[in-house]
Amino acid sequence: MTKATGAALFLFTAAAHAQPTDLTVDSTSSEIDLTITLDTAIGSRTDSDSAPISGTMRIELDSYTSPTTITLHEYSLVAGDLSYFFDYSFLGSISADASGLSLNMPASSGPVSGAVQTDGSFTVDNVPNETTGLVMITGTGVVGSAVNGTSVDLSTLAQDPIQISGVVSPVAGVVTLTVALPLAGSGTDPDTGTTVTFSGSATVIATGQVPEPGCVADTNGDGSLTPADFSAWIAAFNAQSPACDQNGDGLCTPADFSAWIANFNAGCP
To answer: 143, 94 in Cβ contact below 8 A?
Structure first.
């Protein structure tokens, strides 16, 4: 990173620049709880199961000391296999096995943000989500004859945006995120007429390192500190865009002008 000379020099404390951080899911304390309801011509039955979850998440906080906004960039979550049993008494029984379950935020969808409260709690609405996996159904007896070969590919179901809520806590250089992701959907096998409805949630605990400060004074993002960055800061201030916030307080105010001068004088790596 280079810095142009010839600008007036002022001495202020430089501010840190918020940027994304990658979190790793703790599979020992993260799990999916999923309930499946099976509707057949012979009747309806419900069963539940749970399994551990692993994966990664990428988030960004506007401040890694006192965050007021969280941004979800992406997540990729993979669940263990789930098994279900539905008893139809003398008519037989049905077994359902769910495998390859995953939840993903498509990278092409773009980031989404939500407000963080003083206690670290937050809610992010309209999060694009893709749920994938296969539910295979087999059975015995009369009911088994009616459903054998039934399968539901979760990726073919309606993929509506979801609401993600949780708590984020950056302490001592480590970001800890606890979130709940809702699960819901329904599909009908065209050959057997069997409808599989699933509902539940995934509870995820993930941790990662607070990222190193970026070059906040480089407001035009060209990799150099030049007088053009001052013009870019003025434009950001007028637009009230995130690049305006040079002191990391989550606001865009005239105080950020002094902070920009301090960040400019401090230089960048």
So the answer is: yes
